[in-house]
Amino acid sequence: MEKIQEHPEKDARSRQTRLRYGLLAALAALGAGLVASLVTITIMGFLRLFAGIPTPVELFGDRVLKLLSADTFVRMLVTFGHDSKLGPLSLALWGMLALGTVLGLLYALLVRLRLPVQSWQPEKREWLTAAALSLVMILLAVILFWDELRQNFLGLPIDQARFATILGLILQFCAYGFILCLAYRMLIPHHYTEESGSSVQSQRRRQLLQRAGVAVVGLGAGVAGLQLGNEYKQRYTSYDGTQAHPHNEITSPITPNDEHYVVTQNPIDPTPNLDVWRLEVTGLVGKTGTYTYEQLKQLPSTSRAITLECIANGPGSGLMSTAIWHGVTLKTLLAHHGEAQNTAKYVSFSSVDGYTVSLPLQEVLEADALLAWQMNGSDLPLRHGYPLRVLIPGRYGEENPKWLTRVDLVDHFIGGLYSDQGWYNGQLHTMSRIDHPRSARKFGGPIEVGGIAFAGYRGIQKVEVSTDAGTTWNTATLTSPLSPDTWVFWNWTWQPAQAGDYTLVVRATDGTGEQQTSHRQGTVPNGATGYHEVKVTLQ
Ligand SMILES: Nc1nc2c(c(=O)[nH]1)N[C@H]1C(S)=C(S)[C@@H](COP(=O)(O)O)O[C@H]1N2
Ligand SMILES: [Mo]
């Protein structure tokens, strides 16, 4: 070993030794990178599950999802099938682990330690290099994910949430740099001499212990990481996409809370804590303000039945439901803040899960948007947006933000997940659905045909049913809806002349006199249109 330092080039054996050292250093660098990444991932999981701080993996996912088109997004959902969220997220996690491991090599190249080293203690230069690496990672994350940093799953208001996320990034990436620096020193080949006071043997033993220590930390972090991963999966929003179905072919005017359809962007939904959660009213209002949950509930409030429909609801599907929502109207709220300023053109809603929606202020006020804290008489369930959500009659579900934390009046449109992807954001299309009959019937006697129709606050003027695939139409009877913002029930008594196979079709005309379009289109990206058809056999 001494020879390396004396005549490095001349000696073939020393070249071989150098090669061996190079390999050992590379292995040490990869090992240190892996252990540092595992610890970082464990910290991420911990902060995510216990402090509601989003992981860099999720921040990355949110950033990327906004860059996709609606088409690509839906294709991705289909490709990953049942694992539509966990699949891509775990891919990103593995990617991060690999990147963090390989980054160990970069670190080793930067510090270029002369092997074998004399001490297990990193020098100042190494600490500085590791710190620089951490700093670059933190800065990159903050810059790339700036718009996503505002989320916090315990419900922190936006500015605090952003601060907490940045603190989390600092902690995670500093831990990475620290462990990388230390573990690399412990893993690389050491030079043992008698001079340092202890025997060569005890020095060897010490390094062995240190290496074992690094391995134990890596293993411990790996096990903890797996456990946190399992906990993550347990809290996973497997209810995403739950549809509401009629019972015995009858839809109830009000959908019970536990049957209401659910759609969420989140792998794990927020669980806002009322001690930290606030509603902020900001931007172009007379005076801004902040409410606790209790203060909010002191505002003059009202109840209204409102139907929600997801833009992904195709003809005949169940991604729509109706509830009686209770809360304060946007109009009343703004009146408490000296009204909107003249320059306010849009209202922008922000939620604790980072979801943002902005809509033309005028339209939202005319639709009499409601900020609701109750659903069918009980506090909002978590998955429906506890403690506060917005209802915008006339707009698809995606523009009805849950887990609201800020109402901001602005002079321009502000994007969000679905608008960035290019999903339609306008008045929802008129729809109608046949709920019964959906199955074969005995021939003989009249048959009740019925279902729902919906056109947001435009209301429904007329519903027609055809039993001959749309050749002739019969006008149905309408039941007055629970409010101008709900679905309308229709029915028509059919007197079939003979047994056989029939194709029933339904179409509605909205309150403005415009007939539902027969043009068939899928849900992506403009919302499905076309008539709902049901094939029935009369035996
Ligand atoms: N904050 C937030 N609001 C959200 C969503 C979300 O993921 N996050 N999903 C939207 C979508 S796409 C729909 S269809 C409705 C669904 O509301 P529900 O689950 O209460 O039926 O919420 C909307 N509001
Ligand atoms: Mo939706």
Structure description:
The chain crosses the membrane at residues 21-47, 91-115, 127-146, 166-187, 208-228. Residues 271-412 form the Oxidoreductase molybdopterin-binding domain. Residues 444-524 form the Moybdenum cofactor oxidoreductase dimerisation domain. This is Molybdopterin-binding oxidoreductase. It holds the Pfam family Mo-co_dimer. The longest helix has 40 residues, at 12-51. The termini are far apart. This protein has 3 domains: 10-234, no CATH class; 257-421, Oxidoreductase, molybdopterin-binding domain (Sulfite Oxidase, Chain A, domain 2), CATH 3.90.420; 431-538, Immunoglobulin-like. The mean pLDDT is 96. Strand 7 and strand 8 form a beta hairpin. Helices cover 37% and strands 20% of the residues. The protein is built from 12 helices and 18 strands. The chain is elongated, with a radius of gyration of 31 Å. The chain has helices spanning 2-6, 12-51, 56-67, 70-80, 86-111, 124-144, 158-187, 200-234, 293-297, 330-335, 361-366, 417-421; strands at residues 279-283, 289-291, 302-309, 320-329, 346-351, 356-360, 370-375, 378-379, 389-391, 404-410, 431-436, 447-454, 460-466, 474-475, 477-479, 488-494, 500-510, 532-538. It has 539 residues and is of the alpha+beta class. The strands form 4 sheets. The chain has a 5-stranded mixed β-sheet. Bound molecules: the ligand Nc1nc2c(c(=O)[nH]1)N[C@H]1C(S)=C(S)[C@@H](COP(=O)(O)O)O[C@H]1N2 and molybdenum atom. Molybdenum atom binds at residues 263, 310-312, 397-398.
